[in-house]
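One record is set out below.
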Amino acid sequence: MKPIVLSEDMKTKLFEQFFEKFKKELDNFAFNTSDTTISVKTNFSEVAKEKVVITYTQEAFLRMQSLVEFFDTEVAWYGLVARLDPTHYYVYDVKVCKQYVDGAKVDTKDEDTLEFFDSLTDEEANDMHFQAHSHVKMSTSASGVDLQNQQDVVKNLGKTGFYIFQIWNKNNDINTYLYDLDNNVYYDRKDVIIDVEGVDDFIAEVADLVVEKKTYPYQYSGSGYNYNGYSYNAPKKDAEKKEEKEKEKSDVTKPAYLPGYYDGYSYGYEGWDW
């Protein structure tokens, strides 16, 4: 998480951090004749102490999955969201606007977008705080176009409200970008938990019915050992090895076309081995 905009207090703290780091770089600059520049970076991002939970109704989540799975091109959609508290959001419906797509891009026309928003009820328009699209089989990282779109939408909101952006793919990877303008906080996927309504209750209900079998690391099958699915032959005793070797010798016959002999290891003829 990190701030969306820097308040005056944040700027003061960052300046103090920057000054300390810059002074340290200056102190270490002596005798470094190869460098002619000094750069200092200050990180103001941190891990959220409390995760943000985005809960979907089963129908909304299934509709999103269906869009991603059915289309082999990119596809985009909107979501209707209610904020239950500062860290809990409830996505209860999905809306799709007319769009023109290919494998890597979604385009819309102004007249189609206007018609789409005109078709919404006042409640739906007020709860339209979510948009997502598919990256098909590619990574769910935001492209430059995606990031620019996020900035444009958030700027239009002013200084209040919230907005959720997501990128999905066919590997069921979901990347979330959440802007909470009321609290001046931006959350990324590390700060967000995805939840589907009713699933936890269902798992709790059937948990006792799915019993994991206990297995022992080594199992002997008579001809070899098995270890967690991997098998190998048991080592043979010396007597077994000797018996097999003698049997191999007895199975050897003298070649019919040779006048000499064969003892299992070499051929001989009139006292000479060859």
